[in-house]
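Progress narrative, Year 2. Work on DUF1667 domain-containing protein from Candidatus Ruthenibacterium merdavium advanced from sequence curation to structure prediction during this period.
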Amino acid sequence: MKQEMICICCPLGCRMTVCKEPEGTITVTGNTCPRGRQYAEKEVTAPTRVVTSTVAVSGAVCPRVCVKTAQDIPKEKIFDVMHEIHSAKACAPVHIGDVILQNCAGTGVDVVATSNAPAEPHNAHDAPKIESPLR
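Result:
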């Protein structure tokens, strides 16, 4: 099997050719660094991805918070992970790095917040004060 790909490990974006022989030997050409070879080999044997999305938040200033998988997950698990993410609901306040889902879809990988979702103020006295730049 011969596959063309562009390396995403650094800004160079090397165009690589990966050949996987029936006996399992993998050859990579076109990479300019060892990271490119590792990326190409992983991509043809066990591709993974980091998943980003949003989760609903109750009691927050914003209705959703940005999230991502804490590590890359097997590519074939993306739809299972997204199903769990879309079913999840967090409670405000949410802080960057908070674990929203543990062991998402049985991957062993947590889903963590990548943005803050502060709680709604309970009354006008608690609301943040915003200075007008026109004064």
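The first helix runs from residue 34 to 45. The chain has two domains: 2-45, 52-113.
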